[in-house]
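The aim of this short unit is practical: by the end, you should be able to scan a pair of folded records and say something sensible about each. We start with the first protein, listed as its amino acid sequence and then its structure tokens.
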Amino acid sequence: MLLIEKKEEIFMKRAIQLAKNGLGIVSPNPMVGCVIVKNGLVISEAWNRKNHAEKIAINQIKNKNIFVDSTLYVTLEPCVHFRKTTHCVIDLIIKKKIPRVVIGMKNPNKKLNGIGIKKLVKNGVKVIENFLSDQCLILNKRFFTFHEKKRPYVILKWVQSNDGFIMYSSNNKCGIISSQLNHKWRSEEDSILIKKKTVFNENTKLNVRKWYGKNPIKIFIDKKLNIPNFYIENGNQESIIFTEKKNILNHLYKKCIQSLIVEGDRNTLENFIKKDIWDECRIFVSNNIILKNGIEAPKIKGKTLKCLNIDQNMLFFKIRI
């Protein structure tokens, strides 16, 4: 039994690995990976792109009889929506007579939660729920936060000197790898927010010119609408300007924006920290630069997940607990 469980873990972990290909691409949809197994061997696998991962994986198999005694592993409860041109994924699984389905997590959408599973069971499919659910939750932390908390997944980010002062472009020497990493992060999230003061201090473009991928939506806080059009229109990116901090996350939720990076000035960062409206924090701490004065970096609690040494800087990853 233990050996069987270990094999099951391998197949679900492969589905999770496949799903990660959708980071920064499939939003506002969740990242989903699917693996179909028969006699201990993978016969098809896929991740969601322009179609559901399960549908892609199933349709890659031409021999209809091969689904006998097979198991379908999927990171998230299969879709039960019915569209005008296509049947939902649940109906396809039932139609192909796949006898067993292993699911990482239920869909957090209250309209869909558990509905697909009930339909599978009703049609004689054996369903295993919540398999490696902790890992599947981390995979789709943005999607789950959006649906459960009715707001985007919030990532706070700043750079500070060794003695604890905020570092701007004028004194920031993070290095090539750190700079590329920042642009990679931008490509993975839906939006990025800064205040007017940060725009002028850093002359930032908020795009992903040092990485491959989509540019995030630019979100500015500018009470008097003083930010020049150059910053707003630069890069052919969508921009949203708020003249006050109230209801920013609510507005982003209504626009189906599932993740937000918050960069820049201490006041904005601390506003999120004090209200406890954040999920993750990424802090670059320079090993070599001591400023002795300036604007003190925010103080934040939370659990440190990991610490990396990059370009002679320490990078701390924290999560809210």
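Turning to the second protein, read its sequence before its tokens, just as you did above.
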Amino acid sequence: MPLLVAELNRLYHEREAAVYECTHPEIFEQLPAKWLEMTTFADCLHAADGKLSVLDFGCGTGFEARQCLETFAANSVERMVCYDPSTHMLDQCRGTLAKWRNKVEFVGDLGNLIGGFNLLLTNSVLHHLVDPVRAIREIEPLLTRAAVWLCGHEPSRRFVGNPECRSVLRRYRVRHQWQRLLSPSNYVRRLQRWASVVELPEDYAARRAFEEALFERQPPGHLVGGLVDFHVIEDESALREEKGLDFRHLQAAFAGEWDLEWRRTYSFLGPHYEGRLPARWQRAARGLAEAYPDDGANCCLVWRRSPPQ
């Protein structure tokens, strides 16, 4: 399963790379402020260590790398390596970071990389991995013993597991179901699939996976999409599966290896961005945030490697 999911992610992002930022508006609506908080916190943790050597694991289009390069002092980032298994994503990242090209290295294979990184970046990466704990452990030899890890924008199963959060989201969707069904983005996406004008990433990945003999029959796009976003939990029925991310579970899994130094959860109406909601529902989201501050649908985390015992 880990190898299958990795291959499907490679194929999916091969198609999505060029339009990734357009199809994920939350990148620029929610995340700059969150990354500013994280980088500011990390700057304090690294204050005594001086220069930063940065590994951006699963760099995508280069969003988080750019946040760091723009936030940290101009000369504090001594080295940055952006890694992504998708060559198409790496191409997009090169364009994003063009002004820092003399400082950044782009790699598609970590095998021959020289370690010594004291800052690890991930953004919207862990939920694509079947076993994210194992994946982080596999790159630990590249990190220093004092390394800090900024883990941005991951989905949290705690939101779906909270009955009150689910109830408010359900009421919102009942009141706005026609608006959701007729939204321009949903309408255009359905029209594109129906008319075969544009092959959507999940359909492209399904076709290519069949052509590469990963499946005996071509799977439906929605099945492939679910495997690509492996740890995304859509509703409470999926809570019975061994899927979904919970920072407390990660904290337990990493005990003695990484210490959770800072956390922030957000998105208290699930996938519906609160900044664009009517005032009534913004108040409802704020109420949930005050009552259940750890149960937002997304989270950002800052970790520091545990000192040797």
